Structure formats: C-alpha cells, structure tokens
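Task: sequence design from structure.
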C-alpha cells in the first residue's frame, strides 16, 4: 500500500486530555492540556508542555508545583472551557462553580469534580521551541473509588477524554488483549 508523506506535525495520535491546576497564594488557575504523559516510572514522573504565552506558564515557573486533573467524558464542557479561556480574563473556578479540593503534598488545589488528581513537583524543565516541558515528580494520587477495579484505575470505568485533530474522543471499547499475550502464542 502506498503511504502519504506528511510534513512534521504533532496531532496524529490521540492524547490524554487533562486540566492542570496551578496556584500561588493569591491566584489559582486551570489550563487544559493534551501534551501530558508519563515520562518515568521510578520515580514516577509526568511531563506537561505549556506555551510561554499562557497565563499558567508564569504561575508554574514561580511555584514549581502542579496538579494533573483527569476528567471523564461527563466533564467535556469543563475541559473545553478551561482550554479556550484565559485565567488572565476570568476566574475559571468561579465561573464554572468548581470545587478546590485539598492537596496533601503541594499547595495547588485539586479539581474536586474530576475522578483523578495527581499532585506533582517540578524536577526538571526543558525549553523545546514553542513550549516549555515540565517534568513533575508524582507526590500523591487521588482517585475516586468508582473508577477502580482491583485497586487500580480501570480505563473503561474512568472513560477518559482523548484529543486529536482539535476534536475530543472517548474510550469506548474493551481492551484488545492483555500485555504479554503474544508470549503464549504457539
């Protein structure tokens, strides 16, 4: 089959969507990001990337802490709103009537309405052209019990929001196979 060659781009694959909370003593802000992902397992670390023009950029540089708030599909309006409005112009917490949950390891409020919240402390930054990448060591994870199976987050119960090509998607199907299934093939 013939393959089409594309110019370099970043939008080909679905990415997890998260709303990141950042905070100083005076102000807390929310920013929706799709450039979020695991970067290490020991110590557990998450990377997020933010443009310098974003309001949360300066707050994060000042405090060095953030919370990755993972939504489910019922939070699609909050996700979109927080990604299309600036905290310079309005308090998204107030406008959306959101609850600031109490953190246990940072000074950054959790987005209480979301089923998973991951408190992080910045351990490294990298300037990568259009964005600065923040590597955050995971300090605490908060998860609603209704998204757990056997003590672990169940993606189908969570039903996270994925993002690709400026559109939101949901995870609907059961897993294809369990990791390692091919080692049992004959």
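Answer:
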């Amino acid at each position: 089959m013939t393959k089409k060659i594309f110019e370099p781009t970043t939008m080909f694959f679905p990415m997890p969507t998260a709303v990141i909370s950042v905070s100083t003593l005076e102000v807390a802000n929310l920013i929706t990001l799709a450039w979020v992902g695991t970067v290490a397992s020991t110590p557990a670390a998450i990377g997020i990337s933010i443009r310098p023009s974003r309001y949360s950029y300066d707050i994060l540089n000042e405090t060095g802490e953030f919370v990755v708030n993972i939504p489910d599909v019922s939070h699609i309006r909050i996700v979109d709103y927080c990604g299309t409005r600036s905290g310079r112009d309005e308090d998204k917490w107030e406008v959306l009537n959101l609850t600031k949950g109490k953190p246990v390891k940072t000074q950054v409020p959790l987005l209480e309405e979301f089923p998973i919240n991951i408190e992080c402390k910045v351990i490294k930054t990298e300037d990568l052209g259009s964005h600065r990448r923040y590597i955050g060591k995971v300090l605490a994870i908060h998860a609603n019990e209704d998204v757990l199976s056997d003590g672990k987050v169940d993606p189908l119960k969570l039903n996270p929001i994925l993002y690709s090509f400026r559109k939101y998607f949901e995870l609907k199907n059961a897993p294809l196979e369990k990791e390692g299934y091919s080692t049992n093939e004959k």
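The longest strand covers residues 116-128.
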